[in-house]
Write a structure and sequence with these properties.
This protein is mainly alpha-helical. The chain has helices at 26-93, 98-105, 115-127.
């Protein structure tokens, strides 16, 4: 059995030592550049995401306030229209001629097939209780 002795190269003092790195290898240079690119992309993406989130929150708040104003104005106009209608109904109840109420409730615009009914209702309204 032969024992193998370590091979010593010229200028080398120990067989396990390697030459000191004088400059980074191309792969490590690429990896560090790629990490820098990725971190800058991540920062840009995070900034864009935060800006979009802020914009969405402000748009949502504006939409909510506009919707609230629209609902309040619609409710107010509905209340006033209902009040007007109730006043008109109360005034109609006090009328001595019941056919006036009927004429107000029925659409008497000139349309085909409604001419006879319209003329009857107008006659009853004008004659009052005498016709009934």
């Amino acid at each position: 059995p032969t024992t193998s002795a370590p091979i010593v190269l010229a200028g080398s003092t120990s067989p396990s030592s390697s030459p000191p790195p004088s400059s980074p290898s191309p792969m490590s240079a690429f990896a560090s550049e790629w990490q820098a690119t990725l971190s800058s992309r991540l920062a840009a993406e995070t900034a864009a995401k935060d800006a979009a989130l802020q914009q969405a929150q402000s748009d949502l708040a504006q939409f909510s306030s506009e919707r609230t104003k629209t609902l309040e104005s619609r409710m107010s106009s509905n209340r006033s229209a209902e009040q007007t209608k109730l006043e008109a109904l109360e005034a109609d109840l006090e009328s001595t001629n019941p056919w006036e109420r009927v004429v107000k409730l029925v659409d008497l615009t000139e349309e085909e097939g409604k001419g006879r009914m319209r003329s009857v209702l107008v006659t009853l309204k004008n004659e009052g209780v005498k016709a009934a």
